[in-house]
């Protein structure tokens, strides 16, 4: 048994078997800094999205600036795509460290390796499921948002531990040779290097300390940069119009849909076709002054207002449109509330996590927060929320509730 | 906490201790979030994807790339050509991975 295991272990490569000049502390440190920057952006913008959907009193968001969520979430998904090449490059550069011997030298080394294992698992997970999610491939067997949120804390914590452990190597890697030349320190991943480095063979050729090795490292870093920028350029068009013509790999075309605007959840998918097209539909408006029912014609007879606002999906695409309808603050007043009372919104949808949303008082008070009835001068298409939907500045698309059935003003039951 | 260095690099020890400690606190919050915010019935598929991702990367994707480098780059004599080939594989490989997901999404 033991000897069989030993024989298998002997066949497994050792760090020294990977002789490419890419597996070098300086490469690892540089890619690490880029990847780390992307993770900080992801963590911060992700928290912004989380706090929009799960508000806390000590850090409330307001409706201004109107474009803020569009930018933070567009950045989130862009940084997410950038992580595909960055993560792959980082893992490739440190891959030899997977094979260090002895496998574990003690509890400290064991913990260190475990923390790296957690870091790799969590980042790979986040990138793979994140990309699948923005392509609407919900194939996970779990709900994306909650698991993604919990994993983001694990990613961030594991990164902090990792940077703490590896900081001397990072400093060394960044300091030694801005020119990436020389033989440098290799691998350096917390584990003392064993033995000398054979030259040539394995996954690359050429001596590590030569000009050739420098070219190899330069070339690798350059290629990582090109891959990252190219992928960004080919996907960012889903939120940034100038790049739309080259958005070849973007998950969504924000202008493909009824009335030139993309749709995430269709009326059919939400199971509301019948209720939403019922000519007897009327908005139930509940407030301190009691309850009233307003038909679409009643609503159209009220003061109409137009607002040019982005619809910014949590999945990273966004587009601007001209919405027309009734200001929510006018409706709040009509229900006997104040124009800055919070408003609870309920959809015709019977199920689904996004059938309800809350408009905080600051949003209700904003002149561009509408119960929209029209889009670009036409009646709202069914898939855009006909007969009436919420549209407000600086708000995730999932909270722009469609097919509104009921508005409850100021916490009135 | 001492003000000296922990294992060199010119980095003060307290910086590293702070980073690791902060990381452990954040990880603990992550564990608490996993238990309280993620429904228990999702834990198993979550763990499966966590482990599966590493397994597929370390066991399939990375070896494939290493062997590709060994088989192809090992035969190319010109260092310049080698760098160009490596760059092409890296850039097109990344784009191909995302394109594959796009095709999958389009097929559904
Ligand atoms: C690797 C580090 C990452 C971190 C730390 C991170 C963090 C976060 C956080 C904290 C949220 C908020 C979740 C919530 O609302 O509760 C979020 C949302 C989101 N992230 Fe990430 N993320 C990462 C990577 C990615 C990647 C690679 C993608 C895809 C390309 C992605 C796509 C998304 C999407 C689509 C949402 C919105 C989910 C929703 O509200 O339904 N993330 N992220």
Describe this structure as you would to a colleague:
The complex is a heterodimer of chains A (about 425) and B (about 110). Chain A has two domains: about 240 residues, no CATH class; about 150 residues, Sulfite Oxidase, Chain A, domain 2 (Alpha-Beta Complex), CATH 3.90.420. Helices cover about 45% and strands about 15% of the residues of chain A. Chain A has a five-stranded mixed beta sheet. In chain A, strands 3, 4, 7, 8 and 9 form a five-stranded antiparallel beta sheet that branches. In chain A, strand 1 and strand 2 form a beta hairpin. Chain A is elongated. Chain B contains three helices and no strands. Chain B folds into two domains: about 35 residues, no CATH class; about 70 residues. Helices cover about 75% and strands about 0% of the residues of chain B. Chain B starts with 12 loop residues before the first helix and ends with a helix. Chain B is mainly α and about 110 residues long. The chains are: A alpha+beta (about 425), B mainly alpha (about 110). Chains A and B meet through helix 3, helix 4, helix 5 and helix 6 of A and helix 1, helix 2 and helix 3 of B.
Attribute tags:
heterodimer, A: 413 residues, alpha+beta, Sulfite Oxidase, Chain A, domain 2, 2 domains, five-stranded mixed β-sheet, 10 strands, B: 108 residues, mainly alpha, 3 helices, 77% helix, 0% strand, binds protoporphyrin IX containing FE
Q: Report on the biggest sheet of chain B.
A: none
Class by alpha and beta content of chain B: mainly alpha
Straight-line distance between termini of chain A:
70 Å
Radius of gyration of chain B: 22 Å
Report the oligomer.
heterodimer
Q: Care to count the β-strands of chain B?
A: 0
What is the C-alpha radius of gyration of chain A, as a whole number of Å? 27 Å
How many structural domains are formed by the residues of chain B?
A: 2
Strand order of the largest sheet of chain A: 2-1-10-5-6
Whole-number tally of structural domains of chain A: 2
> What's the shape of chain B?
flat
Percent helix of chain A: 40-55%
Count of DSSP H/I helices of chain B: 3
**Number of continuous helical runs of chain A:** 11
